[in-house]
Amino acid sequence: MDVTITVNGTERKLELDPRVTLLDALRHELGLTGTKKGCDHGQCGACTILVNGRRINSCLALAASHDGDEITTIEGLGTPENMHPLQTAFVTHDGYQCGYCTPGQIMSAEAMLREAAEGWPSYVSKTLDADPTLTDEEIAERMSGNLCRCSAYPRIREAIAAVRD
Ligand code: FES
């Protein structure tokens, strides 16, 4: 089937099997391998991307169901010459070890910081403080969908907090 998506600002027309996930379409059809496949069933967050500004696990989404959507991957956030503030902060604060989860961590953090700035969408947990100012505890809670098998969590949180501040 034909699927048209806008990826990092460029419209891409794809002919896909309807069973192809958004993650596989990005990696295999478009060569955007910055988005990682960890668990491939929605548990690790390595495949996090933004769809219309909201974060999703792209391994759980069928590409065909995102026809017409606007997608941002880690490749669309910054470049080695012109890094996004989160990318710079992860380097400065040593917010990674093996680096495999890093793209997903950064995409998730970007979505979280945008949500905090714009006001939390209704699907976000009501158990957390409704105040859009992110505390360190809220960063930890709101990033809990992104796992790091090297356990670099303290430095990941430090990097995000540095951008928040
Ligand atoms: Fe998608 Fe793990 S690869 S959540």
Automatic annotation (TrEMBL):
PROSITE patterns, per database record: 2FE2S_FER_1 (PS00197), 2FE2S_FER_2 (PS51085)
EC numbers for this chain: 1.2.99.7
Domain of life from the UniProt record: Bacteria
EC top class, as a word: oxidoreductase
GO MF annotation list: 2 iron, 2 sulfur cluster binding; aldehyde dehydrogenase (FAD-independent) activity; metal ion binding
One family name in Pfam for this protein: Fer2_2
Keyword flag Transferase: no
CDD domains linked: fer2 (cd00207)
Keyword annotations: 2Fe-2S, Iron, Iron-sulfur, Metal-binding, Oxidoreductase
Domain called 2Fe-2S ferredoxin-type: residue spans: 1-77
Signal sequence, renumbered to the chain: none
Stored SUPFAM superfamilies: 2Fe-2S ferredoxin-like, CO dehydrogenase ISP C-domain like
Protein name per its UniProtKB record: Aldehyde oxidoreductase
